[in-house]
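Case study 2.
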Amino acid sequence: MRHVVVNGANGYVASHFISALLKRGLVVTALVRAGRQQSALERVSAALLAANGDLCLPMDKLRVKEYSLHEKNLGLDSQEAARIFSGRVDYYHFAASLKYDEKSWKEIYAANVEGLENSLKTFTAHAGSEGRFFYVGTAYSCGHHQGLFRESFYPDAGISAFRNYYELSKRMGENLVRTFIEEHGLAAHVLRLSQVVGDSSNGQVATDYGVFDFTRRMARLARRYPQRKVRVKIDPNGSQNLIPVNQVVAHLLRSTETDELPVVMHIVAREGVSNSYILRQLNELLPIDLQAEPQLKQQDMDAVERLVAVGMSFTGEYSRLNLHFDTGQRDRVMGAEAGVVTPDDVGRMLRTFVAAGNYAEVGSV
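Prediction:
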């Protein structure tokens, strides 16, 4: 049985993964930064509570260690690092900055490139022949790639090849992993996730990222301007590749159980959900009339539509896409039914999210 180490352990996907590992009786070491007002243990416990609904987990199997992504040995002393990373261990690197804008580039680079490099160096220095490194990346490292995005490495490129600096940093991260594979013989794997959403088994949503960030903003808008017609710069023929968190966790669990894995795998939905479907759902759920106009220009927007456009500075970049991800290598490991996500799955999550109403306080659109 493998020992699993997870950094960025208080994150959305990481906490769901840890919860599932503990339920299976695996020993897990969670690496997490302490917060200003919370210890590392308190942060992980809060994340597990949110992911699991309670803390009825075999917590005796969980080891929480405070760490630093930028210090030597991740802020651990050498003996402790050796204990954590030696033996039959799988190390999942989740830690990342989700910022995307140019003004945050130094912070993004420090976390997503320099922090990753330090994580790789620490693992390489202490892991044995049975250790494996898993880099949890993003399928959107494809940038502006045209055609089928394959489960293989792509060369580094400048910012013009990407929609934002987050994507750029994640491509750079992938190629750091590749360098350690080629130059240090590291057993490593790149797992590219698309947009992770709620749980398709029960419709519950504990994230407001991506399409749910847009939903939250539109719900607030509908509260302030009920029955308002609002044009949004969205291509109705575009689509969103949405992968439920329970499916992501199933993929990750399989990776711990499988000895022979491809180096790169896409953990994505087999097909995207159309923007037109998502807008129809929101128009049914909210007192608002959202109209997709992909060619809408800023000078033609009214004040409310301009407010919406500002709020879509990140998500808007993904509202005009129809991306195609190769999943051949993933499917050989996970099975032909992996990544099946239906519009009904997404509709159920949208209904649950809107019904929960935790977005509804008056705030910025």
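The mean pLDDT is 95.
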